[in-house]
Amino acid sequence: MRAGTLFTLVLLALVAVGAWFVLDIRVNDAGRLPDVNVSVEDTGKLPDIDVGVRDVEVTTEKRTVEVPTVKVEGE
């Protein structure tokens, strides 16, 4: 398997997992198939589906971080 193909598969898997946690899908009406006749009078009904994206709250806060002192010696 080539590296590009593997990268594409991993990327698609990550997108699928992300969609699983971000999308909120509710089926309001499961729909039904039409009655099968030679002359179709009842055309059936498509399902009624609402798709909503979950709310993502992003916040920031100030923090003080200690940075170590690095001594660089030349040759």
Give a quick summary of the entry.
The protein is of the alpha+beta class and 75 residues long. The chain is 27% helix and 17% strand.
Features:
1 helix; alpha+beta; two-stranded antiparallel ribbon; 75 residues
Describe the overall structure.
By secondary structure, the chain is of the alpha+beta class. The chain has a domain at 24-63. 27% of the residues lie in helices and 17% in strands. It contains one helix and two strands, in the order αββ. It has one helix at residues 3-22; strands at 23-29, 48-53. Strands 1-2 form a two-stranded antiparallel ribbon. The longest helix is centred in the first third of the chain and has 20 residues, at 3-22. The protein starts with a helix and ends in a 22-residue tail after the last strand. The relative contact order is 0.16. The model has no long low-confidence stretch (mean pLDDT 83).
Summarize the SSE layout with pairings.
Layout: H1 3-22, E1 23-29, E2 48-53
Antiparallel strand pairs: 1-2
Helix content: 25-40%
Number of strands: 2
Question: How does the helix and strand content classify structurally?
Answer: alpha+beta
- How does the major sheet shape up? 2 strands, antiparallel
Nearest-angstrom radius of gyration? 27 Å
Estimated share of beta-strand residues: 15-25%
Number of helices: 1
End-to-end distance: 46 Å
Q: Please state the average pLDDT score.
A: 83
Q: How would you spell out the order of helices and strands?
A: HEE
Strand order of the largest sheet: 1-2
Q: Could you name the ranges where pLDDT drops below 50 across 5 or more consecutive residues?
A: none
Gross morphology: elongated
